[in-house]
Fold this sequence. Notes:
The chain is an alpha+beta fold. The chain has helices at 2-8, 11-43, 237-241, 271-274; strands at residues 47-48, 71-82, 97-105, 110-117, 122-132, 135-136, 144-154, 170-181, 186-197, 208-221, 224-233, 245-254, 257-264, 288-298.
Amino acid sequence: MKKIITLLSRPVLLGLLLAAWAAPAAHAQADLLGQLEQETNKDQPSQVVEATFKATRLINGHTVQTPGEGTMVFLISHRFGALNSGGYEFFGLDQATLRLGFEYALTDRLEVGVGRSSLNKVYDGFLKYKAIQQTTGARAVPVSVTLFTSAAVMTQRMNNGIDYTLGKRTAYSYQALIARKFSPDFSLQLMPTLVHRNLVINEGEKNDVFALGAGGRYKLTKRFSLNAEYYYLLPSYTADHYRNSVALGVDIETGGHIFQMHVTNSTGMIEQQFITQTTGNFFDGYLCFGFNVSRNFTVKQRARKI
Length: 306
């Protein structure tokens, strides 16, 4: 008996006994708190996550954003030549390309658009449909998914003896834009892409080109953010002979305008061009300064929800 009393008098043994006694109580308390938290989350209403990105464009490519029902977007996209082209080309300013675009949101989820690019005199049209919207609260949806498809027709006159009928001048792009807004400041997006060209000229070149894009933005202030975008060409003839599209830029919101400035190695401004036809190496200094300016107009007032 004296030995037992002596052992119990030791601080270490007393500590072990107290811990053994307290552990079930602490575990029960943690379980109770977890159940209360789950019950609280069940009571929270589901809310749509808004403004994953500021504009319908990240840099070259599209974002998951649609403008909202009844809104028209006028978009001016401009790309200059490479900064390392030297003084003779005025450091790329002599080699400017331009795209003018109009976009319209038929609903909050569905957007249509048309545009015309000076590069190869291409006319393009597209459809975007927001299939899934990120939400919070009960039964939260972790990502937004927008489906994108476009068609582009090259109208530049060609004198190389190749048959350039209308059908062969056409190319199509298909994308699933998958984005998540992790915080009010940080958003990421993945863009698995298929570009189909009706006409390819080089031996061994395939009509279909697959690419995986990734991009994101980090908001520094209410009106200013940093953006990045990268498209990786999956192994193919195109990947062996062309470069992956890379772009870095900033977004500046100025009231009704969104002004995007960036540097990129792509001079094209539609998927068929900047994904499959980029030739300059961004990391070797082939940097083209460019900008997008978008202006939203309310064409149709939204119906008020009662």
